[in-house]
Structures are given as C-alpha cells and as structure tokens.
Amino acid sequence: MEFATKAIHVGQEPDKTTGATIVPIYETSTYTQPAPGQHLGFDYSRTINPTRLALERCLASLENAQHGLAFASGMAATAAAMNLLSAGDHVVVTDDLYGGTFRLFDKVLARYGLTFSYVDATDIHTVETAMRQSTRMIWLETPTNPLMKIIDIAAVASLSKAWETLLAVDNTFATPYLQNPLDLGADIIVHSTTKYIGGHSDAIGGFVACNRDDLFQTIKFHQNSVGGVPGPFDCFLTLRGAKTLALRMREHERNARAVATYLAQRSDIEKLYYPGLPAHPGHEVAKRQMRGFGGMISFIPKGGAARAKAIAKATKIFSLAESLGGVESLICHPVSMTHGAIPQDVREARGVHDALLRLSVGIEAEADIIADLDQALKK
Ligand code: PLP
After folding, report:
1. 36, 53, 263, 371: least buried by Cβ within 10 Å?
2. What is the CA(98)–ligand 1 centre distance, in A?
C-alpha cells in the first residue's frame, strides 16, 4: 500500500459494532469485564485505548515500522525513548536541536546520571570522536531545528552499529512523508505530532516508532508506568490530520520552495537556510535520504536583531507564534521563543543568532504568502 492510502486506512477499519467508517472517540477510562481475569483486550485507557491504538497503527505504518506508541506530547515521546538508558550512560547529540529537547537533556536527565556531548553531526568524524565506551545512544534531528542542517542518517547508523549503540532520530521536521529513518538504519523514531502530522495546530501529541521488539516492550512499559498518554479526543484529531499529511506536505513544500527562491534573490538577506537550495551544504544528502525538502526555512536578514524583530512583528499572514507544521504560516524568533531555554553562550556558539528568523510555510496561496513577506521585509 502506498503512503496516502495507508494514512487513510491503516488501523482504521470500520467499527465492528456499528460500522462507523471513522474511528470513534472512545472517551472511556475503563472497560467492563465479563468475569475476573477476562477482558476483550482493553482493560484501562492508560494502558490501551481503541482510538489511540488506531493512531499508533496508522503512524507506525507511515514510518514502515513494526511498532508505534503515542504520547501526550513530543517531549513525552522523547522522554519515553530516553528511558531506554540508565544512569552512567552517555549520549551523543546533534548540536542544533529543539530547545525543549536540550532542556530535557540538560536540566532533567543530566540529574539522573546521563551525560551528553553535543556535536555538529553533519561531520561524521566529529560524531566518531565524541563516542565513548559508555555511549549508548546517538540522538539526531534532521533537518535540525532551527538551522536546517542535514545529517546523513545512513552514515551515522553504520557508526552506531559499529559501536553497538542506539540511533534515535527526531523526524518531526521531515515527517514520514519525506523521510523514513528506520529504513536508513535508525533504531528509534520520535515525532512531535503536534506539528505536521496533526497539521492543524489544534492538538499536542508525540509518537515513537521502532522495529525491535525489545525496544518496543521497554518503551511500552514506560508509556504505561509513567502514563504520558494522549487522550482519545487528541488521538482522533491527530489521526484525522494524518489522513491529509501527503496532500499538505506537497503544498508546504511547493510554497516553501517559492519562498526560498524569493528570499534567495533579495539583497537584504544575510543568510538563508533551506535544504532545497542547491547552495545548501546538505542539499546532496537531503536529495539522497529525503523525498523532498519540507516546509521549514530559516534566515537572517541584514540589519541585525532589531530588523529581525521588526519583520516578525510586521507580518500579517504569518502569525508570530511558536510551533510549526500547521496549515497556517508561522514566523518565529527562535532566540526569544523556541530556543529560549538554551543559554546565550551555548546558543551563539552553535550559530543560533539573535537575528535568526524561522518560517513554517503554510498552505495558503503562494502569492499571498510572498506578498506578506514582501511588505514585512520593507519595515
Ligand atoms: N521535536 C521538535 C523538532 C520540535 O520542534 C518540538 C516542538 O517544537 C518537539 C520535539 C517537542 O514537541 P511537543 O511540543 O509536542 O512536546
């Protein structure tokens, strides 16, 4: 079955008792059992819920994964994947990543005895140099948030195999429509479904996919023991969003290419980060491991932080807001928003500049999107 068909059908057979075509919202915490020790596969909704199960099966199929688990947020999914590790374990992490992931690693998990080394994973030798005997996991984002670096997943996967470590990839920016990290050798995929998969900026959610039974069992045990599960209504919204992921991603990408081309020909842009541009250092790797370049663009306008803030304030179609991946266009000033949790010196050393702006290009009409940027860049 192809992607668009799986998104609409996998895990979503008509309801057995009513024939409902759409998976119902099973808004129940518990299930009546015919006799002690006997139930119909469902006992308590922290452990299992039919709406959540439909979502998990559908998203797992989109990642070509054997197993999938849904969580209450992308961060809950990340925390669940990190639960595969124990005190004393070391993790090599891509240095450009979502600020909230950095905060979880640096402020929460470091207190539990995990150690982290942040490297520019676009250079495989840098990753190799950071490996230690205690390294148990490599954590990647690609494309990275917010600098849109592209990391060669297959190259890092073979290094990870040689060291017998786990490779986890946050696939939020690419989505399974454009990239399937398990097929490239990764062991674990994490998503913030809040973004493109949900796609309508109306539900927070997360997802973990893997092929190995042992990893699945441990993460599922964590899902039930810690309890960071999404409610049935949020699962319904996310599943409804996933049905149109293919359609939406094509439009996001088409509009993002047009915006990148528009920004590239302006003389008042200092730096532009979009992997679809041939000048992007990761363009060739992106062409190899992705089926498109996605809808995210970052740029630094000339004129420093003051001009960047003026632009972010002046857009009308682009809302100044955190998050990404919804149908509507968003503009973000990472330093004061999504990446505010990263200390200034660390952020600056990694190239996350005060004047950096990030665009989540929506699926409004291309001409309106460009006209909006055009009027804002005149400020
Ligand atoms: N991973 C990436 C790449 C993100 O951009 C985000 C949120 O912005 C997350 C994970 C966390 O997801 P959530 O906000 O759903 O917890």
Report:
1. 36
2. 7
Q: Is the pLDDT of residue 178 over 90?
A: yes
Contact 100 CB / ligand 1 (< 6 Å): yes
222-226-229-231 Cα dihedral, nearest 10 degrees: 150
Tell me the CA–centroid distance for residue 74 and ligand 1, in Å: 5
Q: Which residues contact 238 (CB under 8 A, 6 or more apart)?
A: 55, 70, 193, 197, 198, 203, 205, 230
Q: Which residues are catalytic?
A: 46, 98, 170, 195
Bridge partners (DSSP) of residue 193 are none
Handedness of CA 267, 273, 278, 280 (dihedral sign): positive
The string of pLDDT tens digits covering residues 320-365 is: 999 999 999 999 999 999 888 888 998 988 889 899 999 999 999 9
> All domains of the chain, ordered by start, with CATH?
3-242 (3.40.640.10), 245-377 (3.90.1150.10)
Our measurement of the distance from residue 287's CA atom to the centroid of its chain's CA atoms, rounded to an integer in Å, reads 19
- The reported pTM is 0.97
Please report the DSSP string for 285-305 in residue order: HHHHH-SS--SEEEEEETTHH
The CB of 289 under 6 Å from ligand 1? The reply is no
The stretch 138-162 carries a mean pLDDT of 98
Average pLDDT taken over every residue of the chain: 97
pLDDT higher than 80, residue 379: no
Determine the distance separating the centroid of ligand 1 and the alpha carbon of 294, expressed in angstroms: 16
Q: Kindly report, residue by residue over 35-51, the tens digit of the pLDDT.
A: 999 999 999 999 999 99
Verify whether ligand 1 is closer than 6 Å to residue 75 (CB atom): yes
3-state secondary structure of 35: strand
Q: How remote is the CA of residue 170 from the centroid of ligand 1, in Å?
A: 9
| Residue nearest atom 15 of ligand 1, based on CA coordinates | 74
CB-based contacts of 162, cutoff 8 Å, min separation 6? none
206 in contact with ligand 1, CB cutoff 6 A: yes
Is 85 a residue whose pLDDT tops 80?
yes
**What percentage of the chain exceeds 90 in pLDDT?**
95
Give residue 342's pLDDT: 87
pLDDT at 372 over 90: yes
Residue 159: partners with Cβ closer than 8 Å, 6 or more residues away:
124, 127, 128, 131, 138
Is the CB of 255 inside a 6 Å radius of any atom of ligand 1? no
